[in-house]
Design goal:
This protein is an alpha+beta fold and 189 residues long. It folds into 2 domains: 133 residues, Roll (CBS-domain); 44 residues, no CATH class. Helices cover 37% and strands 22% of the residues.
């Protein structure tokens, strides 16, 4: 089981960022443009100071009953920012994310934002880490699977073989990978 690899080997290096004074509407446009579900908030000096997710935006807009253009990122960001280092180990990071109940971990080196690691990045590296990642998975079971079911494609753990797949499909009430789907179809014949 490969759990001792450094985050630098799995982190996404291009991180979408926004200033503290950027309004939520502008941030949402950036998130949509780059197909991400979070934006790291940086101060005037370029230092990361918070993170805003799609969920944060929705919750705050509804709670405050306001418009996206009237709210600044500094009003909705999660702070203090929980971060990691490029040299942090995968297993330690998975445990930290589960303990902190976070899905995104900005990676900082020498005070600068150099990448980000998401829970799905960790899942993609090693499906064998299921005991460590169980808490992360539980946090958002309904995540993308429900929204992609209508398209017939989902990403996650196959409910038959337990392997991670980018292309899960619904078969006999289970979300399964393509090879397990074929096995189930052969069993039906």
């Amino acid at each position: 089981m490969e759990t001792d690899i450094p985050l630098r080997d799995i982190m996404v290096r291009e991180v979408v960022t926004g200033s503290e004074d950027m309004n939520v509407r502008e941030a949402a446009k950036l998130m949509r443009k780059y197909d991400v579900d979070s934006i790291v908030v940086v101060n005037d000096g370029g230092q990361p100071v918070g993170i805003v997710t799609q969920g944060d935006i929705i919750n705050e807009l509804v709670n405050r009953d306001t418009t996206p253009s009237a709210m600044k990122l500094k009003e909705v960001m999660t702070t203090p920012l929980i971060t990691g280092s490029p040299n942090d180990r995968l297993s330690d990071t998975a445990k930290k994310m589960a303990a902190e109940k976070i899905r995104k971990l900005p990676i900082i080196e020498d005070g600068k934002l150099v990448g980000i690691v998401a829970d799905v990045d960790i899942l993609a590296v090693s499906s064998q880490m299921s005991s460590i990642l169980a808490d992360l998975i539980e946090m958002h079971v309904e995540r993308d699977i429900m929204s992609r079911e209508s398209e017939g494609i989902a990403q996650g753990i196959c409910e038959k073989c337990g392997c991670f797949s980018n292309d899960l499909v619904m078969k006999d009430g289970l979300m399964v990978c393509e090879s397990c789907k074929e096995e189930l179809e052969e069993e039906e014949e």
